[in-house]
Structure to design on (297 residues):
């Protein structure tokens, strides 16, 4: 299972229809949070996202992307959480998040570890995948994140195994898992893992294209429509069309737009139309929406 739940899809400020930035990524029973704007903990409760998470990733430290972590950590403390919580962000994370931890209580009753990430360096040791930050263009050393699963073993061909005279039983399982060698062709070629890329706030950039090459899902901000492309440039954001151009250049399978201006809170049809002129497989996320990322084969 690899699923994204959008907790907040609005830019800068919440609206009646959309909360500010936040999304949860679920993989094989593990939940990770990316961004934590104000009200994120309530969105988690509303949309059934477990508080049993151990990591939160921040792309930058504008208020609409991290203020919610204060309330979330207070709630986790009141629930008696004993496990550490790991927070990741670009340069400045130690100072900003460290100060945030001091607000409202004398101390946090469980360990909170803050790590400043570097573009290109995989974060931590993980089973079957890696998370790699990449440079974005929003000022202050902002980053995006790419989750990349490692290659999987090829498929076990039952008919070829029978033709090769391999007796059905435990030996099949051992060959399929790579625990013992088998005849050539019984196990197919390695199969690619899945790739999910989340940009956070950014201007369109070559670094995003590189990070998103062949991605199964690209989640890209689209704060503005084309009529405000000058404002997008001035504020370090992207238009829907620009995000679509990145998706096209990177050859991704699916593009999901988020972080939309309040003017598109009720209807983002205009953004979708502009993006589909460039890249057809695109939509604007709404709060509470879940997007599954299946294997290609």
């Amino acid at each position: 299972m690899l699923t994204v739940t959008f907790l907040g899809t609005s830019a800068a400020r919440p609206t009646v229809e959309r909360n500010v930035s936040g999304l949860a990524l679920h993989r094989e029973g593990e939940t990770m949070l990316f961004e934590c704007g104000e009200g994120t903990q309530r969105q988690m409760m509303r949309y059934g996202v477990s508080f049993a998470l151990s990591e939160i990733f921040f792309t930058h430290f504008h208020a609409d992307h991290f203020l919610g972590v204060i309330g979330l950590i207070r709630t986790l403390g009141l629930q008696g959480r004993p496990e550490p919580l790991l927070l990741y962000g670009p340069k400045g994370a130690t100072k900003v998040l460290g100060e945030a931890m001091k607000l409202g209580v004398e101390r946090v009753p469980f360990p909170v570890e803050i790590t400043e990430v570097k573009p290109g360096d995989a974060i931590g040791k993980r089973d079957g995948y890696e998370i790699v930050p990449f440079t974005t263009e929003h000022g202050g050393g902002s980053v995006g994140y790419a989750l990349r699963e490692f290659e999987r073993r090829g498929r076990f061909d039952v008919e070829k195994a029978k033709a090769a005279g391999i007796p059905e039983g435990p030996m099949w399982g051992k060959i399929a898992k790579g625990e013992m060698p088998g005849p050539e062709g019984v196990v197919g070629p390695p199969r690619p893992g899945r790739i999910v890329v989340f940009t956070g706030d950014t201007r369109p950039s070559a670094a995003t294209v590189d990070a998103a090459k062949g991605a199964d899902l690209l989640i890209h901000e689209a704060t503005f429509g084309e009529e405000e492309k000058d404002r997008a440039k001035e504020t370090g954001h992207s238009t829907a069309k620009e995000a679509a151009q990145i998706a096209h250049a990177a050859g991704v399978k699916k593009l999901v737009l988020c972080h939309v201006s309040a003017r598109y809170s009720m209807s983002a049809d205009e953004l979708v139309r502009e993006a589909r002129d460039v890249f057809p497989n695109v939509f604007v996320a709404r709060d509470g929406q879940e997007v599954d990322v299946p294997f290609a084969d």
